[in-house]
């Protein structure tokens, strides 16, 4: 089980956050509600969504590598 206070737990949380925000960007209601602000605290969701959509191949590879690490190595 991943601990949030360890480095691998933070990486898992970051990857899941970026993937979730990228998914929210594809849903019209969630896009207008959650991703409308580009600055401030709510801007973090927007920036994570942009990272997830622009670097989708790198994020997908990172998710696969992290899943392999969590399931088999850790």
From TrEMBL:
InterPro entries noted in UniProt: Kish-B, Ksh1
Keywords: Golgi apparatus, Membrane, Signal, Transmembrane, Transmembrane helix
The keyword Protein biosynthesis is annotated on this UniProt entry: no
Compartment list: Golgi apparatus membrane
GO cellular component: Golgi membrane
Highest taxon of source: Eukaryota
Transmembrane portions of the chain: 6-24, 44-72
Membrane topology type: Single-pass type I membrane protein
Function, as annotated: Involved in the early part of the secretory pathway.
Family: Belongs to the KISH family.
Name assigned to this protein: Protein kish
